[in-house]
Amino acid sequence: MFLVMTLTLPTLFLNAEGNGRIGAIEGVPTISLSEAQKLMGEPNVYVFDINSEKDRKSNGYIPKSISINEQNWESKLPKDKNATLIFYGLNRFNFQASQIAGAAIERGYKNSFVMLDGIETWITSGREVEKEEIVKWEDAKQILDFKDTIHSRLTFEATPACRDCHAGDNKGIKVTTAATRELINQKCSECHKKTKEHFDKSVHSLSYFDKEAKREQILKELEVSKNPSKELQAPLQSEHCGDVVEKDIKQKPLCNDCHSIHITPTFNGILSQKQVADLKCGECHKEKQKSFHHTFHGKGMALSSAGETPSVATCFDCHGKHNILPSKDRNSTLSIINRVDTCKSCHPNADKNFSDWIAHADYTKKDGGSAVLFYIYIFMTCLVVGVFLFFGAHTLLWSIRLIMLRIQHPKEWKEAQKVMHADKVKIRRFSTLHRIQHFFMASSFLGLSFSGLPQKFYDSSWAKTMIDWMGGDITNATTIHHISAIVMFAVFFSHIGEILILNWRRRDSVRNPQTGKIEIRRILKALFGPDSLMPNMQDLRDMKAHFKWFFGRGPRPQFDRWTYWEKFDYLAVFWGMFVIGISGLILWFPAFFSLFLPGWAINAATLIHSDEALLATGFIFAIHFFNTHFRADRFPMDTVIFSGIVSEEEVKHERGQWYERLKESGKLEKLYDKDSKFASYKWLAKSAGFVMLFLGLAFLFLMIYDFIEKMF
Predict the structure, then answer these.
(1) Strand extents, DSSP E, 627-667
(2) What is the sign of the dihedral through the CA atoms of 506, 509, 510 and 515?
(3) Which UniProt keywords are present, listed alphabetically (predicted)?
(4) DSSP of 154-216
(5) Beta bridge partners of 48
């Protein structure tokens, strides 16, 4: 037995190493040294070193790798979950790299790999390593490795030496105290006296907080609070309040918490000043940062490229820098007496109403800024969910019924399709003006979707890429959005003009021919008649019959000129232009609308515009596309909106009521199209149509991908 084990074990280890399984964890893909080296330097590829500081000091690390540990690894992952992540440790017998890679995969980073051989094999294979940047300053052979990247830029002023910042009072530089936060803060204050004056009066200053006053505030809050925060749930005893005060003071930032002085050349200048502020403030004010990123300013920050200065306001533009005070303090930049002037620094026409806009609103809570916003959020959520549930079920049932029909009656199906397509007799359904209007409406809608989706889904992995396609700044996206909106407004108002002109020409139809007087009955008949796009009782009967057909409980219904789902599409445009249009104008010209609207109206416009746009894009690219193009008897595309004509057999097949009504009234002959020129530009129309369909489906996929990404 011993002999067998002696001969077998080395072979097992050799085979295991050859297959790359030692150190591996099931479900975590491995990558070889050569494969990893090929990927390094490629865009969106990140290498993570999980070794300890001691190991990094003795062995070095792969150039440009990011040092992580069990506590901070998740915070150092990129936002883009499609990025390629490579983790490595010391060698194959270190499972920590595989464990963290597995955890990254669970969090959605599917392109995560573990380089099992680790830094030891990397070194022995002769590949490049770096050491110098992780040497501690007290052990550094070259102290210039810890160059002061801020003060070293001074040209005509006295540049501080190491001892000016790191030496205690007449005690020289000591390892134990040289880098303490308190000492650095004190030394900063000795040079930056004016800044210290502002900071000492700010909300971040230790001197701003009086322990006794704080204790009284906590006691008072405990007495009146029905749902005290966790820190305030301690018994009403002064020593507990004292603990809270101490904890609160210890968490207050000092100079070097916000200002990074000794940044290694690899990372120097990687973020702009505004981006650093957004990052640093967010480390302590996570909830505030989250609500800020829901605003246009915050989305501009979140979607900006590293090193660029976004053309939107960030934390210090509104709250100040070293002079940050509670908004209730009269000296605060956001106090009632100063708030308008702060807003005017970017919005010259801002007034009191404009300054009452709620920057950190939480619409999901009744006390998140305004109860009105909460109820608007509830209404919009119910509207979006309700529409998608109803028409989602409608689309699914219709699709299943058509597929079953095609499977059960293949011969009849093919014959019916052949007859409709071969029919040379065409009936005019849409005028040239309607086709032009639809083309520009669809084009502008795609432009609005392209520029709006990355703003709506700003935290999605694909949003930044779309913004980069538009120049990398959110203001470029808004420019495209505004141009597209102007085109859509032009189409909408041209249609309103058309309606007014046509009804003026037909004004005599609502008059009694004998008396010449306008009759309400005739107005209602014109408004809700079969040629009108306004819904009527027949639509309810058609819908009921259609659902019965879905379930095989009745014959397929015959429709009139306009079906109930077409009327819904049409009226949805009017609803959308009213809701999205007005809310969009408020967001486009907030200072003007704040002349007669309260500040929270801008928040309401943001919420309504965002949710209604989500409803519109989702409905058009999923429901409307199916109803018009993707149902089994229309697939892959119905060209009627490009040609304006439809075969007589198709009208008989689906719009029998309209066909019979036209025959009885003698109007059918007038609608026959005997000189259609569609054949001459059919290829162009189909090409444009397929491009639009492809873009719409791509946008729909991105929306669905975002929801799945957030769920899992």
Answers:
(1) 645-647
(2) positive
(3) Membrane, Signal, Transmembrane, Transmembrane helix
(4) -SSSPPPPHHHHHEETTTEE-TTTTT-HHHHHHHHHHH-HHHHHHHHTSTT-GGG--HHHHHH
(5) 66, 87
Task: Classify 85 as helix, strand or coil.
Answer: strand
Task: Catalogue the long-range contacts made by 103-106 (C-beta closer than 8 Å, 24 or more residues apart).
Answer: 103/73, 103/74, 104/73, 104/77, 105/27, 105/28
Hey, what long-range contacts does 315-322 have (CB within 8 A, 24 or more apart)?
A: 315/277, 315/278, 315/281, 316/277, 317/345, 317/346, 318/342, 318/359, 320/202, 321/198, 322/195, 322/198, 322/199, 322/202
Instruction: Please give the Cα distance from 226 to 237 (Å, whole number).
Output: 18
CA 318 to chain centre: 23
∠ CA 116-119-123, nearest 5°, is 125
**Structure-derived torsion over alpha carbons of residues 134, 140, 141, 146, reported in degrees to the nearest 10:** 80
CA gap 88, 554 in Å, rounded: 65
pLDDT at 671: 92
Q: At what angle do helices 537-550 and 564-588 cross, to 10 degrees?
A: 110
Closest CA to 120 of 97, 88, 98, 90: 90
C-alpha to C-alpha distance for 318 and 178, rounded to whole angstroms: 34
CA distance 350 to 52: 53
Indicate left, alpha or beta for 472 from its phi (over 0: left) and psi (-120 to 50: alpha): left
pLDDT at 580: 94
pTM reported for the whole predicted model: 0.74
How far, in Å, CA of 199 to CA of 186, rounded? 12
3-class DSSP assignment, residue 320: coil
Structural contact between residues 319 and 311, judged by C-beta atoms closer than 8 angstroms: no
Could you give the domains of the chain?
Answer: 33-125 (3.40.250.10), 160-206+253-262 (no CATH), 270-346 (no CATH), 370-711 (1.20.950.20)
Residue with tokens 């925060």: 229
Q: Are 643 and 678 spatial neighbours (Cβ–Cβ below 8 Å)?
A: yes
Is beta strand 167-168 parallel, antiparallel or unpaired with respect to 112-115?
unpaired
Q: What is the pLDDT of residue 182?
A: 78
- Give the separation between CA 238 and CA 215, rounded to whole angstroms: 7
Quick one: angle between helices 474-505 and 564-588, nearest 10? 130
Q: Give per-10-residue mean pLDDT for the chain (712 aa).
A: 35 37 75 89 89 80 85 81 91 80 89 90 83 56 60 65 77 72 81 86 72 54 50 41 46 76 52 81 86 91 79 90 87 90 92 91 81 93 96 96 92 89 90 95 96 93 91 92 96 94 90 87 90 94 96 93 95 91 95 93 94 95 94 90 93 92 91 88 94 96 91 80
Query: What is the Cα Rg of the chain in Å?
Result: 34
**307 φ/ψ sector (left φ>0, alpha ψ -120 to 50, else beta):** left
Q: For residues 685 and 219, give the distance between their C-alpha atoms in angstroms, rounded to a whole number.
A: 73
Ramachandran region of residue 170, left (φ > 0), alpha (ψ -120 to 50) or beta? left
Contact indicator for 617, 453 with CB cutoff of 8 Å:
yes
Q: What is the pLDDT of residue 216?
A: 57
Phi/psi of residue 188, nearest 5 degrees: -60, -40
Alpha carbons within 13 angstroms on the beta-carbon side of residue 574 total: 9
| Best CA proximity match to 356, nearest among 594, 8, 57, 560 | 594
Helix 432-456 to helix 678-711 angle (10° resolution) is 20
Residue 244: its H or E element: helix 238-250
Q: For residue 25, what pLDDT is reported?
A: 78
What proportions of the chain, in percent to the nearest 5, are helix, strand and coil?
A: 60, 5, 35
CA distances from 472 to 310, 325, 366 (A): 9, 33, 36
What angle is formed at CA 144 by the lines to CA 139 and CA 149, rounded to 5 degrees?
A: 120
Residues 6+ positions from 616 with CB-CB distance below 8 Å: 445, 572, 576, 580
